[in-house]
Specification:
By secondary structure, this protein is an alpha+beta fold. It has three domains: 1-101, no CATH class; 103-122 and 242-299, no CATH class; 127-237, Chitinase A, domain 3. The protein has helices at residues 7-17, 43-50, 57-76, 83-101, 110-119, 145-161, 171-175, 202-208, 243-273, 287-291; strands at residues 32-36, 39-42, 124-125, 128-137, 187-192, 215-216, 221-223, 226-236, 239-240. Strands 4, 5, 6, 7 and 8 form a five-stranded antiparallel β-sheet that branches. Strand 1 and strand 2 form a beta hairpin. Helix 1 packs across helix 3 and helix 1 crosses helix 4. It is elongated.
């Protein structure tokens, strides 16, 4: 429920009563329909009031007079000096001014959208590889030769017996000490260029993404405290999100940014147009407030 149903009329009454002693006498407008106190109500007032939901013009006319009377009475009794009323009127005027001064929807050119699509990493699909691994942990004090030799022997037998197998199959149980993958043929899922993996070292990922075709890597990789044998099961090359799919989101973001800049400009101009003296130093903004839009939309 609207707690302040006559707020717009109260705002008008408040403004019309400012400096009342010095105000000139207002002549009767040509389209006047009533006079309440010193204020003329016009056909425009009645049309606007009727458009708020009253289809019966006679009823709207009587309600308009009643609300104008209430609004003027409220001003006479000091309601306009209540902080709640002042804040509500201030928000109403600020919102209307902001709406009136915002230009039409900014024009977003396709060239702008395409530049963002081409440069923004969100619309790139990095290269990916589906890997199977054999791992041998390097014993303390060893240079990795022993672990590399174990894997090399296992791979030689594997290549001779099952050259076309997907992953490493049963060989992973025999030759890998990686408990999370050895019972799944060494399968460790997809790795993505530029993204860290749960347990694979960056050097392993970099070399796994190097080939252009799936297959067993020729080199056994020694990284950290382990030696690794890698089979590339499948590859997904680098690609872009289709422009037609990305364009609506990019357009919306550009529109939002343009409207934000418009609001910021209107607010800056308004502050420059009136003298402002800040008498207190407000506390530092919270992280949540700093993340909010710098050019506010008035409720």
């Amino acid at each position: 429920m609207n707690r302040l149903p006559f707020l717009p009329l109260l705002a008008v009454a408040l403004l019309s009563n400012c400096h009342k002693d010095d105000a000139p006498i207002i002549q009767r407008p040509a389209n006047a329909v009533a006079k309440v106190g010193d204020r003329w109500l016009t056909e425009t007032d009645l049309d606007h009031y009727q458009h708020t939901g009253l289809s019966d013009r006679s009823l709207a006319f009587n309600r308009l007079i009643q609300e104008e009377s209430l609004a003027q009475r409220a001003v006479q009794e000091g309601f306009d000096r209540q902080p709640e009323i002042q804040a509500a009127i201030r928000r109403l005027l600020s919102s209307r001014y902001l709406e009136a001064n915002l230009s039409q929807t900014p024009t977003i050119e396709e060239s702008q959208i395409r530049r963002i699509w081409e440069s923004d990493a969100r619309y790139a699909r990095p290269k990916q590889a589906h890997l199977a691994i054999l791992r041998q942990t390097i014993p303390s004090g060893d240079d990795g030769s022993q672990a590399r030799a174990i894997l090399a022997e296992a791979l030689a037998n594997y290549q001779e017996s099952t050259p076309n197998a997907r992953g490493f199959g049963p060989l992973a149980v025999q030759a890998s000490d990686h408990q999370d993958t050895r019972y799944q043929g060494g399968d460790c899922g997809w790795v993505t260029e530029g993204q860290a993996h749960l347990f694979l070292p960056p050097e392993v990922i970099a070399q796994a993404l190097t080939p252009t075709n799936p297959g067993l890597l020729n080199e056994i990789i020694v990284s950290g405290d382990a030696a690794w044998a890698i089979r590339v099961v499948a590859l997904r090359p680098f690609s872009k999100v289709p422009f037609e799919q990305a364009a609506p989101r990019i357009r919306q973001e550009l529109l939002a940014q343009a409207q934000k800049e418009q609001k910021a400009s209107i607010l800056a101009t308004a502050e420059q147009a009136v003298p402002i003296e800040r008498l207190i130093s407000p506390p530092p903004a919270t992280a949540l407030a700093e993340a909010a839009e710098s050019a506010p939309t008035f409720p």
